[in-house]
Amino acid sequence: MTSPAAFRDQTNWSGGYYELAIEVGSSDDAQIQAVLSALWSTADVHGCFGQRDREPEEQDPVPCTVGSLTEFGHLHGQVRLPTGRLVVCGCVAIRGGDESSDWLDFYIPLGALDHAGIAYWDGRPFFRSDVMDEWLAAIGTETFKSASFSLGVIGFDVSGCTDASTLAGELPKTRDIGYLLPQGNVLHYGAANT
Description:
Mean pLDDT: 92
Number of strands: 8
């Protein structure tokens, strides 16, 4: 049986990503670093590596920094799901430049979820896992306590599907993804409901 925590098994990295995508609300490296550090710690990611084609014990760890994200494109590690299974995970920054704020996407590839036995599709029009949604919402909520952000969205390949300015402080009534939306200093979670 394939281990969902194996870096070398490229099927673990396949199929797209189940994500917690965070709109940082700034393009300032210090703010992105604050969110990245809080997120990595809150999720209790094991290791931080620049390569996904070598196992963690076959490579030197890299600092969990914006500089490493810039150098390697993605940071990789292993994280324990609420079910107890250890899986591969990663993070990527999507820099908005002068036009928009930056995003930080923490993800578990669907291939790893498959190998870990996590069901994420039950015939509904969108991939969804209540287990993953609740777990990622809890990670986002704890991250926000240490490093505030403008918006978090949770689901399958959700990065860029909306932004804080479009939502204008209001959770959509009908939600096909999960939302973590700050209102003042309080973060509100709107679970997917369709």
